[in-house]
Input
Amino acid sequence: LTVLFILSAVSGVGKGVQFLSNLNMVIALLLLLFLAIIGPTVFIFDTLIESLGYYLSDLVSMSFRTAAFSDGKWLGSWTIFYWAWWISWAPFVGVFIARISRGRTIREFIIGVLLIPSAVTFFWFTVMGGTALHS
Output
């Protein structure tokens, strides 16, 4: 860790941070592939398909849930907390996405900002969660 810090500092902040970021992505990808291949692969992919099915089938009903006929304390506190969390981050994320999306088409924007990150995150959580649940 110290050697990586020294190499990052010596090569300059821009190049050093870029190197560490790329190294981090490679290590994360290798970890993901290692667990997906060496771990309980069939269970992980069964979990992926089943979880995606549950998500798609419950998305509409969960989106409109207001707990009108039941105690809504949990729903209210959960929603308020996460709405506040995302609203606090919205200006920073919006500026970042606007800056990196300049010159892109709407199709490229939707694929690069919504679809690819969602798919990667879903796969990451499925592999990590499926491996943990199977253990």
Remarks:
- Residues 7 and 113 are 32 Å apart (CA to CA).
- The radius of gyration is 20 Å.
- The mean pLDDT is 89.
- The chain is about 85% helix and 0% strand.
